[in-house]
Design brief:
- The protein has 61 residues and is an all-alpha fold.
- 57% of the residues lie in helices and 0% in strands.
- The protein has 2 helices and no strands.
- The radius of gyration is 21 Å and the shape is elongated.
- The N and C termini lie far apart (46 Å).
- 0% of the residues are buried.
Amino acid sequence: MNFFWLLRMRQWVQHPPSKQRVVLVLIVIGICLALYAVEHWIGWPEALSVQPGGPRMRPFR
């Protein structure tokens, strides 16, 4: 940890973020965890997967 992060922590302690910002960050983290859980247990749809060597791509030789 460098000095910049210590200054940032000090600023957050002196001026904490608003309740709305904390709720927003928690919602974003919850959405990320939900997407991870769906991908982990259900799987990613094959239609949304990127397949190398599509109609425009030529294989490397």
